[in-house]
């Protein structure tokens, strides 16, 4: 029997018990099975029945039928359901952590942190649900009264990636339901189990039938296309790569569907000559290695002032040397496997390319298990600015270091990408750090810290990293539209 130890007391969670949270155990597989694979071993954890375009259409029909009732449900009731779901999620944190770890391969510490973060979105939007936006006033010419209300935008199609199987799901479901929308969620085929478990706990918390449905499919293209073509679907909230985001924006244009897009990143991590190197290294480890580097906010390029490049690199090498890479089931594991072998091969090709072009490996990569999709963390110096490793989103535990000397270079280097999601600046001079942060075309900038995600703050990107923001007040507004009533004689 497969088990995974969790929490300080090493509670053993059995695979069957974790799968029971998804409600998937015992479901029949009707010829369109989806194998959910453990990236640590390549073994199949379970096989789920796959949905197709007809299932997606039926789910959207049901969401359309449920919309008037849910939109008319008192905000306090919607809020209390989300608050109950928040409590249930924390109560089940052990099992949910195990599911996230099993299907995505992330270390149990990362998976536990994700469950806490994911639950916070349920709490935050439970609170936002009862704070409706609106406006009432006299028109400037004094001839009418202005009433502006925020209304649910309609049925929402939610599409999520595999790298945060819980948090990307609650960051969409919670504001959608808080706003009074109904939704159809399509999680990544690699990580559907956590999404099913979250659907289950929301049902237990009181979400009525039809209000939220999950379609699990390996036919993402036709299924999402069906949702976008459905007459009731008025919203697309997508998190994933910029390439797929572009395709979906084009499709959404056909019916002018309202879109929120959380896309790829290529975060610059700037270290100034006056930075506290110790805290820059702590920040670098957090910004680079969370989820083995598979985060949209991951530091993709380290832009370090030439005067401190040696000191910073040596200290970062010491941190990388101390890492343990292994199965998430081992409590000592810092970094688990990447999502699949293709990811490992893609990154290794980029590393080989820069090594051929004169870059130098600064650390001795730690040994990794042979089975599964592991990649040892690497630090590379003298990396060409125009290499794929720097220009593209790496999505793995590789830290390329580029040095700079002139302050003008740093803004140019930081902004030399089509992306603009996260960025980081480390400097002993707060005014300088703020100036640099403001000059960076990034939606989120960590100033002397390596973490930017916070449910209470707007999360999202500039340029080709996205449209709109999640979390904060912005998150619920993304699922609402303003209606203006111009009233005579009030
Ligand atoms: P992806 O774009 O391949 O897939 C994302 C989702 O889209 C999945 O559900 C997938 O099944 C679906 N999809 C894939 N092709 C599709 C198609 N043709 N039509 C419709 N749907 C399709 O991304 P991924 O590999 O799952 O995730 C990694 C990417 O997500 C990275 O680029 C990362 O930066 C980004 N990401 C962004 C954020 C953010 O908040 N900005 C957060 C997490 C991940």
What features would you highlight for this structure?
7-stranded mixed sheet; 2 domains; binds nicotinamide-adenine-dinucleotide; Aldehyde Dehydrogenase, Chain A, domain 1; 6-stranded mixed sheet; alpha/beta
Structural summary, described in words:
There is one protein chain. The chain is an alpha/beta fold. The protein is 40% helix and 21% strand. The protein has 16 helices and 20 strands. The protein has helices at 15-20, 53-72, 75-91, 93-104, 108-128, 167-179, 192-205, 220-229, 242-253, 277-289, 309-321, 341-356, 388-391, 407-414, 430-439, 472-477, and strands at residues 3-6, 11-14, 33-37, 44-49, 134-138, 144-152, 155-159, 183-186, 212-214, 233-239, 258-262, 267-271, 299-305, 360-361, 378-381, 398-404, 422-426, 444-447, 466-467, 480-488. The chain has a 7-stranded mixed beta sheet with strand order 14-15-16-13-12-17-18, sandwiched between helices. Strands 9-8-7-10-11-19 form a 6-stranded mixed beta sheet, sandwiched between helices. A 3-stranded antiparallel beta sheet has the order 5-6-20, with no helix packed on it. It is globular, with a radius of gyration of 23 Å. Residues 6-10 and 25-29 have low confidence and may be disordered. Bound molecules: nicotinamide-adenine-dinucleotide. Nicotinamide-adenine-dinucleotide is lined by residues 159-164, 168, 186, 188-189, 220-221, 224, 239-241, 244, 247-248, 262-265, 296, 393, 421, 461, 466.
């Amino acid at each position: 029997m497969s088990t995974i130890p969790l929490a300080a007391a090493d509670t053993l969670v059995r695979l069957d018990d974790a799968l029971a949270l998804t409600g998937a155990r015992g479901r029949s597989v009707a010829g369109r099975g989806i194998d959910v694979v453990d990236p640590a071993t390549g073994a199949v954890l379970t096989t789920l029945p796959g949905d197709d375009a007809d299932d997606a259409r039926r789910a959207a029909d049901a969401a359309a039928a449920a919309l008037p009732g849910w939109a008319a449900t008192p905000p306090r009731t919607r809020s209390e359901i989300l608050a109950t779901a928040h409590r249930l999620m924390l109560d089940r944190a052990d099992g949910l952590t195990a599911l996230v770890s099993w299907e995505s391969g992330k270390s149990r510490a990362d998976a536990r942190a994700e469950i806490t973060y994911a639950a916070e979105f349920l709490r935050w939007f439970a609170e936002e649900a009862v704070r409706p936006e609106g406006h009432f006033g006299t028109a400037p010419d004094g001839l009418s009264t202005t009433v502006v209300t925020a209304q649910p935008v309609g049925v929402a199609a939610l599409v999520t990636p595999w790298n945060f199987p819980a948090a990307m799901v609650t960051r969409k479901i919670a504001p959608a339901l808080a706003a009074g929308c109904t939704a159809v969620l399509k999680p990544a085929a690699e990580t559907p189990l956590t999404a099913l478990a979250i659907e289950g706990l929301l049902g237990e918390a009181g979400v009525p039938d039809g209000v939220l449905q999950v379609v699990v499919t390996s036919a993402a293209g036709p299924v999402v296309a069906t949702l976008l073509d459905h007459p009731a679907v008025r919203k697309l909230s997508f998190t994933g790569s910029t390439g797929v985001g572009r395709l979906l924006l084009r499709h959404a244009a056909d019916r002018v569907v309202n879109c929120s897009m959380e896309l790829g990143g290529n975060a610059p991590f700037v270290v100034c000559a006056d930075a506290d190197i110790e805290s820059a290294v702590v920040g670098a480890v957090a910004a680079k290695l969370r989820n083995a580097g598979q985060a949209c906010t991951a530091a993709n390029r380290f832009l370090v002032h030439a005067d401190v490049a040696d000191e910073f690199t040596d200290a970062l090498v010491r941190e990388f040397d101390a890492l343990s890479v292994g199965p998430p089931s081992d409590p000592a594991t810092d970094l688990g496997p990447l999502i699949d072998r293709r990811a490992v091969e893609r990154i290794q090709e980029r590393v080989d390319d820069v090594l051929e072009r004169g870059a130098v490996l600064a650390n001795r990569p730690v040994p990794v298990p042979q089975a599964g999709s592991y990649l040892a963390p690497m630090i590379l110096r003298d990396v060409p600015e125009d290499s794929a490793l720097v220009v593209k989103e790496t999505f793995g535990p590789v830290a390329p270091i580029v040095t700079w000397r002139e302050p003008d270079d740093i803004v140019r280097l930081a902004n030399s990408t089509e992306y603009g999601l996260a960025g980081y600046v480390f400097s002993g001079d707060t005014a300088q750090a703020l100036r640099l942060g403001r000059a960076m075309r990034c939606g989120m900038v960590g100033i002397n810290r390596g973490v930017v995600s916070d449910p209470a703050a707007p999360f999202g990107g500039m340029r080709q990293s996205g449209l709109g923001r999640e979390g904060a007040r912005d998150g619920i507004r993304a699922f609402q539209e303003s209606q203006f009533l111009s009233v005579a004689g009030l």
